[in-house]
Amino acid sequence: MEEIKHVDENLITKAIIKKAAEEWIDFSECDVIVVGAGPAGLTASTYLAKNGLKTLVLEKKLSFGGGMGGGGMCFHKLIIESPADEIIREFGCRLEMIDDRIYITDAAEMMAKLAAGAIDAGAKILFGVAVEDLIFRSSPLRIIGTVVQWASVNMSGLHVDPLPIKSKAVVDCTGHDAEVLAVASRKIPELKITIHGEKSMWVDLAEKSIIENTGEVCPGLYVAGMAVAALHHTPRMGPIFGGMILSGKKVADLIVKKIKTQ
Ligand code: 48F
C-alpha cells in the first residue's frame, strides 16, 4: 500500500478557515434563509435550491433531521401518508405500504436522504449556527434577514455580539417552539404576531391545518412545518410526516413564485 500522505498541521487550519470564510462571505447575502434542518426545512430548501434560489439552511445542532431521528418514541420508523409518498420517493427513500396509501420508512434513511437531496440541489447547510433575531425595516414593515450566533456561544453564556445575514425571505422551520416567530412576536410588536402554541393530538386535522396555514406571516417572513401549528394553535400529529413534507414543498413554491416575480 502507498504510504499515507504527509500533512502539515498549518495547512489544515489555513484551508478550513479560508474556505469557510469564503463561503460565509458568499452567503452573507442570499435569496432564502431556512431556519432549521428538520423535515420541513430540508424539503423546503431542496425545492428552493432546485429552482435556482441561493438557499442557506441554518441549524443550531450539529446534525440534520430534527424530529425525524427519534422516530416514534425512539422506535426507528416514521409514517408517511399519500400524497407525500411521491415526494419522499423523489428523494430516493424506500417506503413500505402498511395500509391503503399509508407508508412506513426508516428514520435514519429519511434523515439522510432528505439532507442529501437538499445538498445535491445546491442548498448550503451550516451546523451549530442559531438564529437568535431578525433584521427588519419599516415603511413598509418587512423582514430582510436573520441575526446569527454560534449555538455553542449561546450555550456558554458568554456575551458575544452576533452577526447579520441578509436575505429576500426567511422561513421559520424550527418546529414545535417556532423560535423565529417567537422572537418576532417579542421584539417587533408592530408585526402583531402571537404564538399560541400547538394543541393536543388529532392527526387528520393537524396534517390538514399545517398544510393550509403554511405561508407568509409578513413580508419576507414565512412559516412551515410544526411552527405553523404553534402559530395557529392547531393540533400536533406525532411521528407522521406527510404534513411536514407537503408544508416544506408549499412554502418553497410560494417563495419561488414571489421572488421570481419581484
Ligand atoms: O423539530 P423539527 O423536526 O421541525 P419540523 O421540520 O418537523 C417536526 C417533526 O420533526 C415532528 C412532528 C411532526 O412530524 O411533530 O416533531 O417542523 O426541526 C426543527 C429544527 O430546527 C432547529 C432544531 O435544532 C431542529 O433541527 N432549530 C430550532 N430553533 C433553531 C433551530 C434556531 N433558533 N436556529 C437554528 N436552528
Q: What do you see in this structure?
A:
The chain is an alpha/beta fold. It has a single domain (9-261), classed as FAD/NAD(P)-binding domain. It contains nine helices and eleven strands. It has helices spanning 9-27, 39-50, 84-90, 107-121, 151-156, 179-187, 203-213, 226-232, 242-261; strands spanning 29-35, 55-59, 77-81, 96-99, 102-106, 124-127, 129-137, 142-150, 163-172, 215-218, 221-223. The strands form two sheets. Strands 1, 2, 6, 7, 8, 9, 10 and 11 form an eight-stranded mixed β-sheet that branches. The model has no long low-confidence stretch (mean pLDDT 98). The site of ligand 48F has 28 residues, from α2, β2, β7 and α8.
Q: In percent terms, what proportion of residues is strand?
A: 15-25%
Estimate nothing, just give the exact number of structural domains: 1
The CATH homologous superfamily corresponds to FAD/NAD(P)-binding domain
| Oligomeric grouping of the chains | single chain
Overall helicity: 40-55%
For the record, what CATH class applies?
A: Alpha Beta
Radius of gyration over all CA atoms, rounded: 19 Å
Low-confidence stretches: none
Overall mean confidence score, pLDDT: 98
Tell me the CATH architecture: 3-Layer(bba) Sandwich
